[in-house]
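Listing S7. Sequence submitted for prediction.
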Amino acid sequence: MSTAYRAPEAAHRYVLDTVRQADRDRFLAALFAPQPARQGLMALLAFDHELARAHTVTREPLLAEIRLQWWREAAAEAAGTGTPRAQPVVESLSETARRHRLSAGALIALIDARAEELEGPLDVARAGAALAELELAVLGVSDSATRTAAHAVAAAWLMGEGSERDAMLAGARSAGKVDPAALPILLQARLLDRPLGPWRKPLVLWWAARHGRW
C-alpha cells in the first residue's frame, strides 16, 4: 500500500498555472470538482499535457521516447512509497496517486497510449479511456454508464470537428444516467457543441453544472 505524501504548495501552484495556460477549457470544467478531487484532476491534466508535449518538443523519435521513459519511471515513483523526484508535476501527481490509490499501471497506460503518437496517429479512444479512468478514480465514480460517458467525452476531446465526434457525444449522452460527481470531467462536452468565445465558456459551464447538463 502506498504511503501518504504531501506535495509542496509550490508544486500545486505550478500545476494550476500550467493547466490554466495550456488546457484552459478543461481547467474551467475541473474547477467544479470539490477539493481534494479538484487538485487531483489538475495534476492529471498537467501530467497529460506533459505526455502530449513529448512529440512536439523534439523532432527525434528516440529523444521523445526517452522523455516518455522518464515519465514511466516517474509514474512508478508517484504510485510508490518513496520520495518522488523533485519535479512539480511529479510531486503533485504523487500526492494524487497515493491519496486516490492510483496504480502505476493505470498511470503508465496513459503514457503508453500517448506514445503511439510518436509513430502515427493518436488512438483517441485508447488515450481518452486511459485518462478518464484515472479521473473517475479521483472522483470516486465507477458505475458503467458514467464510465462509458467519460470515455466518450475524453476521446471526443482529442478529435477534430466532424460528424464522428458529434455521433460519439450523442452516443455518450444517451448511455444512461450518470453520476453527478463526474460532471467536472463531462462538462467539457458542452464546449464541443459549438464555437464559443472565451468569455462565454465559463458561463456555459456554470449553467451546465447548475442544471446537471453536459
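Caption to Listing S7: primary sequence and predicted C-alpha cells for the chain studied. The domain at 9-211 is CATH 1.10.600.10 (Farnesyl Diphosphate Synthase). The two ends are 36 Å apart (CA to CA).
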